[in-house]
Design a protein that fits this description.
The protein has 7 helices and 16 strands. The protein is an alpha+beta fold. The N and C termini lie far apart (about 55 Å).
Length: about 300
């Protein structure tokens, strides 16, 4: 008898559509901590840390800002208190870093200023802006596929981007798409990453290009505050529009608008730098039950059908 496929093996075997599988996030908080004193990273690391312990008040404080995502990050063999903040929902996404002496300093983060678009300030000190960061999910206690696929990808990203630009992270969502990673400052989400993809991801990201065949979506679309379903529909539409128009540079296309259709679908409009508009219709339904995580019962998952209209 053949062994059952893992969730990631099944997703790859079925060639599951990646685009349109990432949820909206305007602001990312990345906190360096292995949580060694609390049993390490867990199945639901951030949710567990928010319930009790030294991070509970901090995580509640950070979550007061709408549409945020907090991740714990680490590097093997080292300890520190680095913190990164990425703001993705603006015309020029930004990424900031600092190093703390105590995690409680995060309670002094100027949340009002951050919400207003100011550079983040902690304890009266402005954080330093940097240009790139890669976060790879290796949280094997959430799902073994994350560690099995993520760890080799992490090593290759370090080789191509440099150790100071690459971190292991807790759950990003969609572990059946392991290895999964985020490329900042834009918060670009990729899935089904192999170690051999690392060089292309770094090279293209630094040049301002997307890899559409590995693209899940992004944290946010500048200036648009979309609900979850619309956001994922936009990600699915963007991937197809870019593939068909061969516009792979991130700044070549900007989201112009999303409109609801009578059948429950969405019409998504992107515009290029020359003013041409590209429109796609996205209709979302549920798949047959499938593994979404190893060891959990199969369940239906959203799937997108995308069709491109002629240029407006």
């Amino acid at each position: 008898m053949q062994n059952a496929l893992t969730c990631a093996e099944e997703s790859r075997a079925e060639e599951e559509m990646l685009a349109g599988t990432f949820k909206p996030t305007d602001t990312f908080f990345l906190i360096e901590c292995s949580l060694a004193d609390d049993g390490g990273w867990r199945h639901e690391t951030v949710k567990s840390a928010a319930k009790s312990g030294k991070f509970s008040a901090i995580l509640r404080y950070l979550s007061a800002l709408p549409r945020t995502k907090t991740l714990f990050i680490r590097r093997p063999g080292r300890t520190g208190k680095h913190v990164f903040i990425a703001r993705t929902n603006q015309a020029q996404p930004q990424l900031f870093q600092t190093q703390l002496t105590d995690y409680a300093e995060l309670l002094s983060l100027d949340m009002a200023g951050l919400a207003a678009g100011d550079s983040p300030v902690i304890n009266g000190r402005a954080m330093t802006e940097i240009d790139e960061l890669y976060a790879v999910c290796t949280n094997g206690r959430h799902d073994p596929c994350c560690a099995a696929y993520g760890s080799p990808v992490y090593q290759q990203l370090v080789a191509h981007a440099g150790e100071d630009r690459v971190w292991q992270t807790t759950h990003l969502g969609g572990h059946r798409m392991a290895a999964t990673l985020l490329a900042f400052p834009q918060g670009v989400a990729y899935g089904h990453i192999n170690p051999t993809d690392a060089e292309a991801i770094v090279t293209n990201h630094r040049a301002g290009y997307l890899l559409t065949h590995k693209y899940r979506g992004r944290g946010a679309y500048a200036g648009h505050r979309l609900d979850n379903e619309s956001h994922q529909a936009v990600g699915a539409a963007e991937a197809l529009i870019r593939e068909l128009t061969r516009k792979y540079r991130m700044d070549e296309l900007q989201l112009h608008g999303v409109h609801a259709l009578e059948d429950g679908g969405r019409r998504v409009h992107f515009v290029d730098v020359g003013g041409a508009v590209y429109t796609a219709a996205v209709r979302t339904s549920l798949s047959l039950p499938r593994q979404t995580s190893c060891g959990e019962p199969p369940k239906p998952m959203p799937r997108h059908e995308v069709s491109l209209y002629a240029e407006a």
